[in-house]
């Protein structure tokens, strides 16, 4: 079967999601999931019928939440499908490329590789900001530029002035995709307002993080109506199952939004607890973060990651040397994680002495 697969697929290294990596424990802070498991009611009387391609009630609800018009919204199976739709719709195989800025979310490159589209890398600066001169130098044949803010795994926000400069730079050349999977934790930093000025801007959103619906697989692409119409040409006929739409609509109701707002404040408080609790450990660097996670640099990150793993505390190792990403879970999970790491370094110090 491997020989029958397309050459690009044969050579492909799949994205190692938190679930693929696995683990065995009682503290799961590796996938940036919400610690809140909310309850929903379902009407299952119409499962013999196909769902609408773009359920109107769901589209209207998210448009109202995001502050855009319904014709500027497309819903899909998570924002991961949004990434694939954009590449399929705008990139010619063997001619066009995407450009992304590591360290960042790994699915941009893997989705492009899956479709046989070239990927260009322009690493972020030492401050984890866009290297605009290098991006401009590499724009030839680039159809899509992916930017993640808050960035995963670093947690920082990309400078808004740089985003505007990038949008000006790419006019009539490429689509700029702002991945705002974590924007619900800092809505004031959204770039949705720039849709009014830039027809080549697309914004990715999801219900997986702040809304606590990672298992639902419901995402959104926000863009101008013309761009949305292009994506509708390549999306599957029935991308949103009926139960998914029902639950998403409930989550976006006034009561659902009020609950999410309260839970986001709780998660932000627990993120601050992680930052404060780990920041006092000698030799540990805690980076500012705006999502529901923090990036921590340890003196020996890989060893710390494995020690926590063996203890049943499942964190996420990072492509950045000695850095570990830790989701802001429940207070109990955060307390257990901070206590373990403190004890671990006290033990290491005592053994070295």
From TrEMBL:
PROSITE patterns: AA_TRANSFER_CLASS_2 (PS00599). GO terms for molecular function: histidinol-phosphate transaminase activity. Its EC number is 2.6.1.9. Residues 41-340 form the Aminotransferase class I/classII large domain. Its cofactor is pyridoxal 5'-phosphate. The keyword Transferase applies. Keywords: Amino-acid biosynthesis, Aminotransferase, Histidine biosynthesis, Pyridoxal phosphate, Transferase. The modification N6-(pyridoxal phosphate)lysine is found at residue 209. Homodimer. This is Histidinol-phosphate aminotransferase.
């Amino acid at each position: 079967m491997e020989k029958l697969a397309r050459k690009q697929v044969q050579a492909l290294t799949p994205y190692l999601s938190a679930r693929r990596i696995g683990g065995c424990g009682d503290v799961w802070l590796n996938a940036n999931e919400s610690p809140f498991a909310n309850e929903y009611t379902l009407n299952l009387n119409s499962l013999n019928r196909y769902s609408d391609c773009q359920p109107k009630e769901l589209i209207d609800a998210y448009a109202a939440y995001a502050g855009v018009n319904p014709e500027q919204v497309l819903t899909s199976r998570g924002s991961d499908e949004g990434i694939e739709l954009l590449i399929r719709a705008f990139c010619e195989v063997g001619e066009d490329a995407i450009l992304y800025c590591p360290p960042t979310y790994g699915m941009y490159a893997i989705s492009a590789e899956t479709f046989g589209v070239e990927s260009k890398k322009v690493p972020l600066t030492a401050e984890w900001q866009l290297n605009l001169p290098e991006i401009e130098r590499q724009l030839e044949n680039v159809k899509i530029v992916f930017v993640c803010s808050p960035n995963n795994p670093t947690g920082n926000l990309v400078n808004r002035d740089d985003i505007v400069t990038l949008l000006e730079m790419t006019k009539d050349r490429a689509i700029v995709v702002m991945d705002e999977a974590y924007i619900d934790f800092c809505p004031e930093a959204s770039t949705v307002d720039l849709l009014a000025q830039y027809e080549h801007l697309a914004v990715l959103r999801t219900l997986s993080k702040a809304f606590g619906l990672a298992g639902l697989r419901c995402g959104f692409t926000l863009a101008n109506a013309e761009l949305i119409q292009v994506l509708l040409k390549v999306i599957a006929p029935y991308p949103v199952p009926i139960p998914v739409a029902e639950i998403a609509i409930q989550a976006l109701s006034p009561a659902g939004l009020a609950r999410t707002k309260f839970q986001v404040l709780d998660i932000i408080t627990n993120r601050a607890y992680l930052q404060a609790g780990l920041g006092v450990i000698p030799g540990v660097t805690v980076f500012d973060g705006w999502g529901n996670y923090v990036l921590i640099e340890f003196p020996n990150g890989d060893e710390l990651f494995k020690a926590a793993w063996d203890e049943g505390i499942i964190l996420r190792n990072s492509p950045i040397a000695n850095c570990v990403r830790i989701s802001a879970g429940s207070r109990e999970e955060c307390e257990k994680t901070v206590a373990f790491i403190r004890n671990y370094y006290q033990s290491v110090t005592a053994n070295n002495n």
